[in-house]
Design goal:
Elements: H1 2-19, H2 28-43, H3 59-90, H4 97-113, H5 116-145, H6 147-173
């Protein structure tokens, strides 16, 4: 599980870095208008250009970034919990036989109380959810650029989701 989550985190991080610039305001129009006003002022032409307002990032860019960051943080949380679980399990091996047997009983009680097995079994679901979120964010981001490419991404993401739901339903049913 560690290599898959690490690979996914790297892909999501690369995507975040690639579209990070869309969250910054574009000052080019403001600079152009101010320079035009300065040129007009120095040449004696009256300024009739209104000063443009700096708009913030597009709401679609903010939405895509939010989904991607949520997906990335979900993957990192899954890796964190997996490492914590592995560390907890490794403590069984490092002590003497008598200490291990005492601590094993305490840890087994703690594992049952804190539902350790259930939490560890949910970690792959977390990674799968992050993949679904990344597919959704990717298709939403590409929708503005090319609807055909976005439709392909959405189709593969939808197919993957439907196939996953079918497999889960089939496993539960039979």
């Amino acid at each position: 599980m560690f290599p898959q989550a690490g690979l996914f985190s790297a892909v999501a991080s690369a995507f975040v870095v690639d579209i990070q610039s869309e969250l910054r305001s574009d000052h080019q129009e403001l600079f152009f208008t101010v320079l035009t006003m300065l040129l007009n002022a120095t040449s004696g032409v009256p300024n009739q250009l209104p000063l443009p307002q700096i708009a913030g990032p597009k709401s679609s860019a903010v939405q895509v970034q939010s989904i991607i960051f949520g997906s990335l943080m979900s993957a990192l949380l899954a890796v964190f919990l997996a490492m914590l679980g592995k560390q907890w399990l490794n403590l069984h091996v490092e002590r003497s036989f008598i200490d291990r047997s005492r601590h094993r009983e305490l840890r087994m009680r703690g594992m049952i109380t804190w539902r350790f097995k259930f939490i560890m079994e949910c970690l792959p679901l977390t990674i799968q959810m992050t993949l679904l979120l990344l597919g959704y964010a990717l298709s939403q981001y590409v929708w503005v650029l090319s609807r055909t490419v976005a439709a392909v991404i959405a189709a593969f993401t939808s197919f993957g989701l439907l196939f996953y739901l079918f497999i889960v339903f089939a496993a539960v049913r039979w």
